[in-house]
Amino acid sequence: MSEPPIRAERLSRFYGDVIGLMDVTIDVPPGITGLLGKNGAGKSSFLRVAAGEIRPSQGHLTIFGTPPFANAAVHRRTGYAPEGDRFFPEARAGDFLVHLLRLSGYVRREARRRAAAALEEVGLPTVFRKRLAACSRGMRQRVKIASAMAHDPDLLLLDEPLSGLDPLARREAQDLIRRRAERGATVLVSSHVLHEVEHLTRNILLVNRGRIAAAGDVSEIRALLSRFPRRIRIECADPKRLGALLLAEEGLTALRFEEGALVAETDAADRVYAALPGLVAGHGIEVTGIESPDDRLETVYDLLVGGGAE
What we know:
Rossmann fold, 11 helices, 6-stranded mixed beta sheet, Alpha-Beta Plaits, alpha/beta, elongated, 4-stranded antiparallel beta sheet
């Protein structure tokens, strides 16, 4: 069995008396994984260790089976976009990318070609000669993403990559991240904005106070929270009639009616979902939509960490 792209074993990172990460053991699989948590939860610390920028204080982390710190071979396979700007303000966007690519071992001609291609990929084909100090925050953010992707890495570590982007640029960046994953890259993308990651992937790591609060698919995580009733919202032509039929089902704990819909609260969601087709078909009730608000990332996160501030 091959090593996962990222493996952490009892990983901790301390900054003096401040805990960045505490006893994290997790495998990050291929594809896109969302690293979710509020500001100060430990997301950036995990990414910095994975990028080889800092050492673990305790435990281990490997990239493709190898520790990343001071490891040029791992760095060549990794692209890292940190949260904050790390530019020479007077440098031009293209020269900045060329410099990084030259450090990665590319000859100047190939470095310039890759830099221009990366800027075009992030929607900035005309800023090669533009000074970074004259670029907007959103443009600098896209230059940073381009710098992480220009050498076609196998692993992308993106720390709050959508921050500062307008809605159109945010959607384009999400599409770009998905395309990179489709081409075989593993992507670990951090965010404190839950719906942004929900548009990218269902595979998540929830981070709280330096620890992994939960990991896996959103629906799988939600299913573990059996102590919390689950809501199912059903849009239909006759909510009261369908509600009366559902009351006969086991596991229903509450029922609420809205205009054109009913919301069932249950501690046996699978049973309700299994019963619905028969009830609807058998009684000729037109249903136009079914959703579970409690499968949303925001709800799952709040339940797991209590909604408290970091």
